Amino acid sequence: MEKELVTMVQSRKEEEESQTGSLFHHAASSELDMDLEIQRYLYIAIVHATALRSHRLGASVVSDKVVRTEVSKYLRRMPKAMEGIDIPSFEGTTVEQMKERMDRYLYSTIVQSSAVHASYWEHKIIDGKKENSSTNITTEEKKEKKTIITRITSTITGFFIQIRNWTTSTITQTWTSITTTNKRVIAIELELKEKREMVVRIERQLQEKTEMVVRIQRELQEKETMVVSLREEFTASTTKLNACAVKADKAAAQLIVCAKRVRKLEAMINELQEQGGRNGADGLDFDWTVQK
User: Coiled coil where (predicted)?
Assistant: First the structure.
């Protein structure tokens, strides 16, 4: 049964390697090698999870540089179990494809780990004694088998605990990010609302200013029309005044002529009066009064 399981795992492994490129190492030859192998795949799973966290879009491409950067940030330093191992390159692979492949890798690794441990235990010789039958198991062998099973179980349990911890951490970080984003969105929406109200207020003020400008322009046009009318009246009044001045000049000239005639008449009257006095009672006796 175990041989069939090993054969199945090996076949599954070769099939996946032909499809996606190998991430597996040579089959472990001892418990220590197998434990190291499990640790390596555990860290590969961490790399996978970290890359997924940074590239949530299924269509994005994860490069080898991104994977190395993420694992160095997540683990701070390369763990001892990863020494001498090439970090798998996911270059040219989308996140969804990488997720599917990592699921197959981890499944095959766990199955292969169990099969190799079982095969290793089956062929081990304890204290140089051979087993009398395949069903006869000594107390020491039972303890060893129990220890191996416990170790495998602990390793697998630790793996799932780390995955659970990572999932919890990711969910917490995501929720924190969502909460922070929501707060920022609310703040931005409030600021946007204030800006919109300010825009409406400015538009209303601008409309009022525009109406005021139109009213002032209309009043200015009316004033200009009034100024033109006053200029026309002023021109007409000036013309009339000039005409009156000309008439006044003519009247003054006529008055001067009349004054000269009056003075001439006064002289004649005075002369006649003097002549009348010399001629006696027969002379003319009248008084001339000239009002100037």
Answer: 185-275
CA neighbor of 12 nearest in space, from 102, 105, 97: 105
Distance CA 10, CA 123 (A): 19
- Give the number of domains in the chain: 2
Residue after which a domain boundary falls, among 104, 123, 142: 123
User: Given its phi and psi angles, is residue 16 left (phi above 0), alpha (psi -120 to 50 degrees) or beta?
Assistant: alpha
Q: Which two tokens stand for residue 132?
A: 């009398």
200 in any annotated domain:
no
For residue 165, CA distances in Å to 50, 170, 250 come to 13, 8, 124
Taken as a whole, the chain contains a residue count of 292
Domain range for 257 is 252-282
CB-based contacts of 264: which residues, under 8 Å, 6+ apart?
Answer: none
Last residue of a domain, one of 123, 142, 159: 123
